[in-house]
Design brief:
By secondary structure, the protein is mainly α. It has one domain. The protein contains two helices and no strands. It has helices at residues 3-82, 85-90. The longest helix has 80 residues, at 3-82.
């Protein structure tokens, strides 16, 4: 091999290899940044869903409390209204 052949081989192999390495690094850096943005977006959505979930759970708890606690009181009040008026007048007031 002559020095010109070595030089030609370096130019033919080394320069495209360096160029490809550069291009791949840029591509993978871009993909990494893209994944970071997607991860941040997913985390924000998860936080929003968690807040929404918590609010819905609180509303369900309130509804359950209304149904269980006040339901019995409401039923008692309805039954009290069904009693004859005379019977209510006979009961002493406490």
């Amino acid at each position: 091999m002559q020095p010109g052949d070595v030089f030609g081989l370096l130019i033919a192999v080394l320069i495209p290899t360096v160029f490809l390495i550069y291009v791949f690094r840029r591509f993978f850096t871009y993909k990494e940044k893209q994944l970071e943005v997607q991860a941040r977006t997913a985390a924000e959505r998860a936080a929003e869903y968690a807040v929404s979930n918590k609010e819905l759970e609180q509303r369900v708890r309130v509804l359950e409390q209304i149904i269980t606690d006040h339901g019995a009181q409401t039923a008692a009040q309805i039954e009290a209204l069904r009693q004859p008026v005379a019977k209510l007048r006979e009961t002493p007031n406490a």
